[in-house]
Amino acid sequence: MNDKKIFIDGISEIDYISQVIRMKTYTLKTKHIADQNKTEYEIIPEQEIITSLDGFCSSFNTMKTVMEKLVAEGMVKESIFDRTQIKDVTEDK
């Protein structure tokens, strides 16, 4: 097993076609604007995770279970579920 760790701030896009799921990940880079005294974030595209439909469903089920526990413990609000974006690439054709 590869012990390489990958850090991401999130998944920017999820595409699916023919039982294959492609998830594009990103990290955030902070950029301080001194003259305006504010901080902005730049989205840096990172890896693409490619998995089968079964692998995606299994991963989703695991994340859903963890999210339910985090909500129950008050660590996150349920509205965080609204941030998911899923794009059906078959609609582009």
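(ticket continues) Second input and output from the same batch:
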Amino acid sequence: MEEEVVDCYLKRLQPGKFLAPSGTFGVSVKIRCIFDKGLFRELALLSEHHAEPEVLDHLSVYKGETPLLEWCDAFCNNGQMFLSADLSEERVAAFAKQLKLSYATLESFTKRLRVGKA
């Protein structure tokens, strides 16, 4: 990761242990930071002259120590984003719509996996 990208994250460094799942592979820099509008703005500016994988590869968002979002291989064409079951389906649907993506509940996703349609 380029120095200016790491600096973007380090400006928002949050004390505490890195919480991403132990099975998270290929993460070159592990930083726990504050997730706010300022981070999004700065990442958007950095993305103007950096390839997407240079800005972000894995994203985990927590409230305290509770995972809200896990997005491994964020820019992989078939990468899935996993959201907390504590979020209402209405809220997830609105989020997916903003991203112009479809969504599925874990139950329907695993059902599709079993029949080979995921």
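Agent notes: The two ends are 32 Å apart (CA to CA). Residues 37-47 form the longest helix (11 residues). Closing as not reproducible unless the customer responds.
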